[in-house]
Amino acid sequence: MSSSPAPAQLTWRGVRDGLKLAPPLLLSSSLYGIIFGVLAAQAGLTFAESGVMSATVFAGAAQLLIIETWARPVPILAVVLGLMVVNARHLLMAIAMRPHLVGLPLWKQLLASSVIVDDNWALMMGRFEQGYRDAGFILGLAMLAVPCWTLMTLTGHALGGGIADPQRWGLDFVIVAMFIVLLCGRWRGLATVLPWGVAAAVAVVASHWLPGKWYIIAGTIAGSFAGLLRADPDGPLKAALKAKS
Amino acid sequence: MTADAAFALAALALAAFALRASGILLGGLIPSTGKAGQLLREMPGVVMVSLAAPSVVNGGPAEWLATVLTAAVAWKTRSLIGTMVAGLAFIWVLRQVL
After folding, report:
1. Which listed site, A55, A143, A157, A221, has its alpha carbon 20 to 30 Å from A38?
2. Closest by alpha carbon to B49, among A130, A183, A132?
3. Is A103 part of the contact surface with chain B (CB cutoff 8 Å)?
4. pLDDT at residue A29 in the model
5. How far apart (Å, rounded) are the C-alpha atoms in residues A62 and A58?
6. Is B92 on the interface with A (CB under 8 A)?
7. Over chain A (245 residues), what is each successive 10-residue block's mean pLDDT?
8. Which pLDDT score is estimated for A166?
9. Which whole-number Å values give the CA distances from A143 to A102, A152, A231, B20, in the listed order?
10. Which pLDDT value is given to residue B54?
């Protein structure tokens, strides 16, 4: 980002690149989709309601919270607030992605951001930081995930119950493994210890004290600011060290 | 579908989109240089750490050991798919054993 990058793109070629990497993400979204469908049925959502929600909201954790508060008549303010709380991280994710989209028409920037979830955003950011410029990639990742998530929600709703919990199959750990490999690519030695350590510590503590997924926001804010305590690794300090050696 | 449910679903769809879109629309107000830029560059890594750390730390010995093994595979291979498959295998076995 410090060197002048190639212009941002959003092409079918990028979409195809995304489609190629989509299968492992489909595995976990399918299983969670079924579980969400089962729970939605138990919470009293109709077949159509749960399908429409999965297709338009496309956010697993938020949807689980929403069905917890679902009632008749639907408490609209409560469900919308629940969604905002759990999905507040999408705002930060879109802010971080925006510099890589600048130059694209606004509708293309909004299209790319509209499909953000934890896993596809992390993969997209990894690509961008290696100099890849095509935002079609995140659309390719989401293109199968959205229909898959929706179909599996409906399947789960139709099944109604008796599905094993995902932890038993270790599928909850697949996303952790994905973050580990992406973080390996972002490791910059000692420079990363402070922000990442602070983020991890704050997120873990906050996960016990804050509701929903607020721990992600807490960890992110604390970790980012901790990173400011040292000079910019790409800034004057690094230049000074280079000049010395 | 009742009117209140339809209205709630429409509001949810709009809110979900608005959160994602407002990062794009408001992000331009944040300068990409200086301290703010550094904050922005730090963010993706710390978001990932904040997402993953509680699942690992709040787990048990199986999660801790699987994380160490998965990190070793990730560091050695740098393969996304390979690491995800290895992580799945590690956690599956360790949760049976531990």
Report:
1. A143
2. A183
3. no
4. 85
5. 9
6. yes
7. 71 97 88 86 92 94 85 89 86 93 96 95 93 96 96 91 59 83 88 94 95 84 90 50 43
8. 57
9. 22, 15, 40, 17
10. 93
Q: What residue has token string 């010995």?
A: B61
Q: Is the pLDDT of residue B56 over 90?
A: yes
Is A90 in Cβ contact with B24 (below 8 Å)? Answer: no
Residues in chain A with CB shorter than 8 Å from the CB of B4 are 72-74, 76
- What pLDDT score does A239 carry? 44
CA-CA distance, A69 to A52, in Å (whole number)?
Answer: 17
Q: To the nearest whole angstrom, how far is the Cα of B65 from the nearest Cα of chain A?
A: 12
Output the six-digit token pair for A154: 């409906």
| Conformation bin of residue A45: beta by default, left when phi > 0, alpha when psi is -120 to 50 | beta
Band of pLDDT at residue B52, cut at 50, 70 and 90: very high
How many CB atoms within 10 Å of residue B2? 12
pLDDT of A1 reads 47
What is the ipTM for the molecules in this complex?
A: 0.86
The residues with which A104 forms a beta bridge, in sequence order, are A102
Check CB contact under 8 Å for A177 and B4: no
**Pick from B15, B57, B74: CB nearest A204:** B57
Share of chain B above pLDDT 70, in %: 100
CA distance A197 to A15: 35
Q: What are phi and psi of A134, to 5 degrees?
A: -100, 110
Contacts of B20 in chain A (CB under 8 A): 87, 90-91, 93-94, 113-116
A220–chain B Cβ distance below 8 A for any pair: yes
List the one residue out of B45, B43, B58 whose CA is nearest residue A173: B58
For residue A130, the tally of other CB atoms under 10 A from its CB is: 8
CA–centroid distance for A41 within its chain: 25
Give the Cβ contact number of residue A211 at 10 Å.
10
